[in-house]
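Field: COMPLEX_INPUT
Field: COMPONENT_COUNT = two
Field: RESIDUE_TOTAL = 692
Field: MODE = joint
Values follow.
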Amino acid sequence: MKNVKIAKKVVKKALNKAKPATPDVPELLLVPRREGLRIGKPNVLEVLVRIPCPPLPEGKARPSLNLAYVLDRSGSMANGPLEEAKRCTASMIAQMGPQDYAALVVYDDSAKVVLSSRAVKSPALFAAALAGIETAGSTNLHEGWLKGAHEVSRHQESAGVSRVILLSDGNANQGLTDTNAIEEQCRQLAAAGVTTSTYGLGESFNEDLMIRMARSGGGSGYYGQTADHLMEPFRTEFDLMSALAGRAVHLEVLPCQAAKVRVVNDYLSTGKNQWLLPDLAWGGETWALLEVEILPPKTFVAGHRLEVTQVKLGWTDLDGKACELGPVALEVPLLTTACDGLPENELVARRAGELAAAEYQRKAQEAAGRQAWREVDALLRKAKAQAANNPWVAEVMDVLVALAAQRDAANFKKEAAYSSRQMNSRIADACECGEGDANYSPLAEAGRQSFLRRKTYQGRTQFQDPTDSPQKN
Amino acid sequence: MNPWHERYKIWEGTAEKLAEDLLGLMPRFGLPNTDSAPNVRLIRHYVTVGALTRPTRRGKEAIFSGRNLLEALVIRSFLAQGWPLQKIAEVIRSSDWETLAGLLPRPANRAQELVARFAAQAQAPSSRSTTSMPAAAVTSLFSSPTRDHLALEGDLAALGNLTGTACRREVVRLTVAPWCAVEVDLAALQSLTPDHALRAGDALRRLLVQEIRKQGGRS
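Field: COMPLEX_OUTPUT
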């Protein structure tokens, strides 16, 4: 706690510019893992960049939404999955109003606009259109996505959030199928204001493509092991879009002399020392972990402070206005002794542990793809050891260990990939900074906004809403 | 946010500049320039028939205004929909700036331009060009999303037509006998060859025989 206070004091002293002018804008905070650098020796210091947003200001309406629901209706979606996807879509549309726009697109061998983008004045019209969708053909995922993007782009200026919601249970096997090319198109479209979220379903979808589309498309990536597990991610995404405060969030790191900086999270680099962060959400905290390499010169005097790094943040608010915070600088004291013995900041250590676990999961996913199960087991053991002080990560590892024991590569790879992605880029609860938050309890998570909850099993429903249960015919 | 056309209120230029800027703006509105690309001669023609308001004179130079640029866009947009130039001239003469702007489809935004480019690339995967874009692809992607158009889509959908557009076809109805009429697409008729006419006749004969059999008659 002492360290946090010191760090806050340092930040406050150095960075009056980053102080928000009004209470309804985010803050930009820098917190070092250890409060000290050793003179004359190479130091590697982890610094947590925290961007907590206040709760949704009273009286502020949720942003208008401009969505295209792009549903896979290939033959494999028959007997249940398509019906559940339609039900989830209908449920989201039921929450939209006349200020929102929605379009329905289906794809099999080719894509078809079932209902062009229009104001959601009559959910019954969408329900009727959804009811008429039936399964057929193979998977032209790219054309479906592109048609969805076309529909969304028509009303882009009128909405706070413009997004293509793409659902697939298969592999793109018609039209453009090159993952790199599709990913690049998602990135360019996100930069132009149309984002992409993806929903994978079942065992056969291409998790690499779906995750990369969501990552470069500035949206979210979810999956459900079966159709019954789709509603929770749909609801989570709707809640997130309703709580968005800013998008196209860019972090720029301005290293001081002789410092080398990297972002440990798996965020997209958008230029030299620039990264694209997840969106800003009311009540949430977007964050990044920096690893700063620095060699303080011997000429410095012990006890003096050295500026380690400077960061600034840019984003676009939901009215399309460009916003900025910073630059914010971090200074830490110089010491003549080794810094290893200094107490650690608990929050920074916890987030660093999550990222280390995420990296082990990514490696385990790759190993499972090669059927190298011994390697998978060893990596999961290491990840579990890493998570000794983080009950949430420990529970995630228990799930993965159990999955690995089944030696089912398709299932394991999906869970490991999405779990790694969540640990890398989750929006944390802005209140999740106390020592008590190290504990993990599903009950406490259920009390958070849905998009701030830490799940232990990405492909399964964990926080079921009473209205979410699938319809039984 | 100011409407896109506000910035053109202060625009002015020669006939050459008008033709050049018109050509540059047309793709943003999904207007094809395949028939007759704008040039100085065409601009003068529009002035002669009264579709374009007469420019002001500055010395020897005819100076066109932002309104002329807007008028020219409306002309091209309406011509593309099949309106005769004289009728377009009447509409333009009775419209103020805001009305003229409202007659145009909304210009393409950055995302729409990207989608059009990706669609064009998908149609021609071998050509990796990132700049060229077939006019047809652009036109089909940006099909007039004006307010009226959206309202029409809503009405059509309520009537059970979920395509969002009404299919418009001009046909020639040939009544062969009191009990038999043949409808032929007008556009197709204009390019119909005698060989195709013969084939159509044969097909019609075969179809009639099939129908007679279905009804239990003798053929």
